[in-house]
Amino acid sequence: MANKLQGENSPYLKQHEHNPVHWFPWSEEALSKARAENKLIIVSIGYSACHWCHVMERESFENDAIAQTMNKFFVSIKVDREERPDIDQIYMIAVQLMTNSGGWPLNCICLPDGRPIYGGTYFKPQDWQQILLQIAQMWEEKPEVAIEYAERLTQGIKQAEKLPIQSIPEQYKLEDILQVVEPWKEQFDGKNGGYFREPKFPLPNNWIFFLRYGFLNHDQEVLNHVHFTLEKMANGGIYDQIGGGFARYSVDGRWHVPHFEKMLYDNGQLLSLYSEAYQNRPSILYKNVVEETIAWAEREMLDSNGGFYSALDADSEGVEGKFYTFEDQEFDFLGADAELARNYFNIKKSGNWTEEQINIPFVSSEDQELIKEAGYTEEEWQSHLKEIKAKLLNYRSKRIRPGLDHKQLTTWNSLFLKGLVDAYRTFNNDHYLDLAKGVAGFIEELCCQNGRLLHQPSDKNRTIFGFLDDYAFTIEAYIALYEATFDEDWLNKAKSYSELAIEQFFDSEEGIFYYSAADAEVLIARKSEIMDNVIPASSSTFVRCLFKLGVLFDNSRYTEIAERVFANVFPHIKSYGSAYSNWAIQLLELHFGLWEIAITGEDAKSWREELDQYYIPNKITLGGTKSSLPLLEHKNPADAKAYLCQNKTCSLPQSSISNIIELINNKQG
After folding, report:
1. At 43, phi and psi to the nearest 5?
2. Strand-pair partners of 274
3. DSSP H or E stretch at residue 78
4. 530 near 161, Cβ under 8 Å?
5. How far apart are CA 545 and CA 513, in angstroms?
6. Residue 404: count of CB within 10 angstroms of its CB
7. I want to staple 410 with a disulfide (CB 3.0 to 4.6 A). Which of 216, 347, 470, 563 is the partner?
8. d(CA 318, CA 525)
9. In this structure, are residues 447 and 410 in contact, taking their beta carbons and an 8 Å threshold?
10. Closest CA to 21 of 75, 95, 90
11. pTM to 2 decimals?
12. Residue 22 DSSP label
């Protein structure tokens, strides 16, 4: 018989609807039951593409004996972390405080009022059963011990990442940036790219910081490491060499063996990173990555409503990576190209993934020599490689596919929207802009209700109003859409959402943005999200948006709020650069300045296209033939001119983009 998850839409929750555990979704019904029966609560959190979530389900939650223990002594609640990130945030902090580590599956045992008393990630079935029995016994015999611990832990949750008010510095110096960069650089892996660590995550925001820092501070060593890292990732097994798109991370230090799940949020950010890297150092590899990743997303992740789905599972047929790996003999169908393709993608008879004795396609630097020896020019090989990849993709498409998480999240769609806009501006491909506008249409039509953003489209079960990240990344994406099109409707929407976000999330006394809205469901703590992770923090993203909007609308209130929050975070950036990378990008702009490039006249679009052939990471672009923006006021909209502005001072009108570039070069020395 199905449990209470049977009516849910989340693929992760539906994966558990036939477990013998009497699961509830997070709901007042479940919480009331726990209070009424004085039962402890199990809050079990994961997501559909999570491999170890599947393993724990198979080993423990489908185990009748364990299910009987859970049903007898506990009220068990299943949470999709992507659907309810506010709940996940609180219990993740709890587990990190208890164990100094975190991850998914996340399992927390709580008092009937939701305050946690025990937690961890994956548990072996015998360990899970033993823990459940011990805690149930403690609750029956010594409840005061649990209550006392819960009080201390909940206080710790409330205090975690709470920042004191700091004074706003008169200026941010290069020394401040170097104090962030120098210890951070020591983690660089000069052999394999990225950092000295396993597993290896792409961390796009980290490399955008280093790309911009290296360029602005003329640090060629850092720039070289960024490009080396991007090449290693793009050639590694973490990148789907056959179908495009990146996996969430590689389990090894060489980017070879991926954890095969593909997430929309990673790939949206990586579109932005590789597009920006191409502007700095044009490479056919970067162009191919962007082209193939967008093709993958459009082919496998795009809904007819214009929005993208969330994720593809790591597993198919119950085996991790089965959809993406190859036996040596499978390449035989390529005929005359079989041996060349085997060598190029490093396909071995015994398998290049030795633990599983199977092959993960990847490319090595030696393969470029292989192509020369085969007599191909670069252009000839690129054309032929596309043909080979198309044949392999068609062959692979006949396999049983990994599971699809069909949730459509506002935050992740906004990240992908911005990636599409960045790709459009770099490669001038109108199709990328059309896709981006389709995502924006999806957000406006299905993820907006009475002027407020939703976290995802409403379903028959519930409406989840947007969290700070839904606002921050949508605002960021709409600003990007404006800068690409000069359509001020997007900028006005960004402003409208910003006003609402300030009203709903900002605490002026504490100088912070909370993650959940003022009128959201009351949980055991209301938290802010400060540290950047695989996705930049909602606070850092919104602060960066407010700095931009403050310039675009000449709105001192936006700037003052952004300065207040940034100053509170600033002392912490140098302590752990990787976890404050988006804040560090803002630090670059506060020190090196932000160029405001205004373009007027009928040729504004073509001038913007010319401008985007240059790498200027610290700029805002605005323009068009009509505008209500302060920076474009009193400028003849019919006159084809460009203006370089900074700190409320503009240059004389320039008659070409090359003149603007010359002005920037002269000012930068």
Report:
1. -105, 110
2. none
3. strand 74-80
4. yes
5. 13
6. 16
7. 470
8. 38
9. yes
10. 75
11. 0.95
12. -
**In this predicted model, what pLDDT tens digit does every residue of 558-594 receive, in sequence order?**
999 999 999 999 999 999 999 999 999 999 999 999 9
Of 313, 521, 460, nearest to 8 (Cα)? 460
Place of tokens 């600033």: 570
The answer to whether 107 touches 46, Cβ cutoff 8 Å, is no
Nearest to 47 by CA among 9, 82, 8: 82
The 3-class SS string of 222-257 reads: HHHHHHHHHHHHHHCCCECCCCCCECCEECCCCCCC
The alpha carbons of the chain give a radius of gyration, in whole angstroms, of 26
Type of residue at 337: D
Contacts of 218 (CB under 8 A, 6+ apart): none
Question: What torsion do the CA atoms of 632, 638, 643, 647 make, to the nearest 10 degrees?
Answer: -10
**Rounded Cα distance, 584 and 578, in Å:** 9
Per-residue pLDDT tens for 392-404?
999 999 999 999 9
On the question of pLDDT at 669 being above 70, the answer is no
Q: Number of helices (H) and strands (E), helices first, in the chain?
A: 24, 20
Give the phi and the psi of residue 187 in degrees, each rounded to 5. -85, -5
Residue type, 7: G
Tell me which amino acid residue 28 is.
E
* pLDDT tens digits, 110-161: 999 999 999 999 999 999 999 999 999 999 999 999 999 999 999 999 988 7
My answer on whether omega of the bond before 105 falls inside 30° of 0, hence cis, is: yes
d(CA 644, CA 662): 11
Using alpha carbons, select from 36, 35, 60 the residue that is nearest to residue 132.
Answer: 60
**Per-residue CA distances from 321 to 295, 359, 361 (Å):** 20, 10, 12
- Tokens 């939650």 belong to which residue? 61
Output the CA–CA distances (angstroms, integers) from residue 461 to 4, 26, 85, 221, 359, in the order listed.
Answer: 12, 11, 17, 53, 43
- 157 by Cβ neighbours in 10 Å (0-12 / 13-18 / 19+) ranks as buried
Contact 252, 240 (CB under 8 A): no
Token representation of residue 86: 């506010």
Q: For 231-268, what is each residue's pLDDT tens digit? A: 999 999 999 999 999 999 999 999 999 999 999 999 99
For the sheet containing 116-120, what is the strand order?
24-25, 74-80, 40-46, 106-110, 116-120
Nearest to residue 568, comparing CAs of 516, 512, 529?
A: 512
Contact 294/420 with Cβ under 8 angstroms? yes
Give the DSSP letter string of 288-357. HHHHHHHHHHHHHTB-TTS-B--EE-SEETTEETTTT-B-GGGGGGGGGGHHHHHHHTT--SS-SBTTTT
Residue 116 is inside which H or E element, if any?
A: strand 116-120
Tokens describing residue 428? 């001038």
Cβ proximity of 481 and 417 under 8 Å:
yes
- H-state helical runs in 3-107: 11-14, 28-37, 51-56, 64-73, 85-99
Helix (H, G, I), strand (E, B) or coil at 392: helix
- Report whether 271 contacts 291 (CB < 8 A): no
Q: How far is Cα of residue 524 from the mean position of the Cα atoms in its chain?
A: 26
Q: Are 577 and 183 in contact (CB under 8 A)?
A: yes
Cis, peptide link before residue 617, omega less than 30° from 0: no
* Three-state DSSP state, 452: strand
Q: What size, in residues, is the chain?
A: 669
